[in-house]
Predict the 3D structure of the following.
Amino acid sequence: MQATSSSAIEARQAGSRVVIAGVSAIVLILAIAAVVLFLNLPDANAFNARVERLFVESDLTSQSEIKLLEILAQSGTAFSETLDSYRFVIFVLLVFATALLIAAVAFLVMLIAMNRRMGQIERKGIEVNSLLISRDQNTVYLNNFEFKLTEAAIETLSVLAEARMDDEVLSGAEIEGVISGRDASDCDEAAGATRIKRLRDTLGNQMMSELLVKNIARRGYMLAVDKDIIQMV
């Protein structure tokens, strides 16, 4: 159990490192792309600088020429404002692209983790981490989930738990013999099988009961849990 827990922790840590590395790579790539893009955009004041140079170097005397320069200056200002708006739009789009890529990586990692978890569940079934049987209260705590059982069901489950702790497999006749206090040879196999059926019916959840109480062909019944997690009070 400790080795399984350690491997699970290491897997989660490795997954976290992959996510951090992926997100960092995305942010870095987009940051480099943004820097290269903004450096290659034309200078917003380039047009105004050319108009100013033309005004200084030219000997303009007529009113029409001066008016033409004013129009060019206004066009340069409009060009500068348009380019600034383009810069802002590009910045917003880059931020939006970064957010989408990060979300995509996060969802991809979540899907991979979910698929792995579902694969583990399919291979291993429901994993029982703790089994506490309280005879006085006719209650069993399975993975901290409380199940109220009948007295007969608790007796059957207690017999199976004691046998599991001793690494024994009990037949139906042996189960009936232990509970009734008679010799197993004097008991009917069907009586023990009936007790097992009633125990499973009392647990209610068919999947849980079938996984908890295992039927071994031509041998008998046993609890399909680790004996170290069984506690009886």
Remarks:
- The helical segments are 2-40, 46-57, 63-124, 151-165, 172-180, 189-203, 206-212.
- Strands lie at 131-134, 139-142, 145-148, 213-216, 220-223, 230-232.
- Residues 2-124 form one domain.
- The chain has a mean pLDDT of 75.
